[in-house]
Amino acid sequence: MEVNKIVAELEQQIARLKEARALLAGEGAMPRKRGRPPGKANVASSSRKGRLSPEGRKRISEALKRRWALRRKAAAKVPKAA
């Protein structure tokens, strides 16, 4: 009888060691998924990211026009070598 008890304890210990090995090797753990976690998509879609007011759009347009006017003026002053 005592031999059966020792064998049973050894089998339990082997099972625990196999489980520990699987956890350490990453077999028992769930693999991590790439990307945004679920439930976060609705938060991003409700934000106003990327939208400009008409006044802001007009300010940017005028600033770009001034910038390109200065560049054209600077390019006209420097003669191109042929």
Structure characterization notes:
This protein is mainly alpha-helical. The chain is 65% helix and 0% strand. The protein starts with a helix and ends in a 5-residue tail after the last helix.
Write the layout of secondary structure elements.
Elements: H1 2-25, H2 41-45, H3 54-77
Which short descriptors sum up this protein?
mainly alpha; 82 residues; rod-shaped
Summary of the model, kept short:
With 82 residues, this protein is mostly helical. The longest helix has 24 residues.
Question: What is the radius of gyration?
Answer: 35 Å
Count of strand segments: 0
Low-confidence region ranges: none
Mean of residue pLDDT values = 83
Per DSSP, what share of the residues sits in E-state strands of 2 or more residues?
Answer: under 5%
Instruction: Kindly name the structural category.
Output: mainly alpha
**Count of helical regions:** 3
Helix content: 55-70%
